[in-house]
Amino acid sequence: MQNDLAKVLISEDEIIDCCKRLGKQIESDYKDKNPIVVGLLKGCEPFMSDLIKNINTYIRTDYMDCSSYNGTVSTGSIIIKKDLDEDVSGQDVIIVDDIIDSGATLYEIVDILKKRGAKSVKTCVLLSKDVKRKFDLHVDYVGTTVPNEFVVGYGLDFNEAYRNLPYIGVLKEELYK
Ligand code: IMP
Ligand code: MG
Question: Residues lining ligand 1, CB < 6 A?
Fold first, then answer.
């Protein structure tokens, strides 16, 4: 599996530092608010798990599965495959995803949750891809920036593989081109 990577971009230690920093920020911003932290499956999985361990205040968790991605090209529209269990009306919500690329996914989910009456909706991603966004969206909590390359590991997949790598790397181009 490791041999499929052109290079490692973000080490396990760097990821853990991001989770600690973002967790502490969220903790201080949401003291006494009991927000719902909404993970976007499946990419959020390792990040969500490490992030929430660093938020030392009352939170609730919930999950949505809304993929917009087929292979390596963003299609720009989402399908809800699994919806939330919780009613977000009147609630403070933080959406957690692995990466923002075009912004389509987060833009649409923010819109959906606001229309459902959420009191506030903020966004948190581990990675922000260094591209000109197709959707104008402010991300409230960003772990780190990655270049415009296809990355895998720590939740990020290529056709469902590589999510279990403990770090983030660039996939060799010959594997998807
Ligand atoms: P967006 O909707 O274009 O912002 O894309 C966001 C979603 O696309 C993320 O939740 C990921 O699942 C997926 N994605 C975007 N870039 C990559 C990548 O480099 N590797 C793996 N998945 C990616
Ligand atoms: Mg995703």
Answer: 43, 68-69, 74, 97-105, 129, 150-152, 156
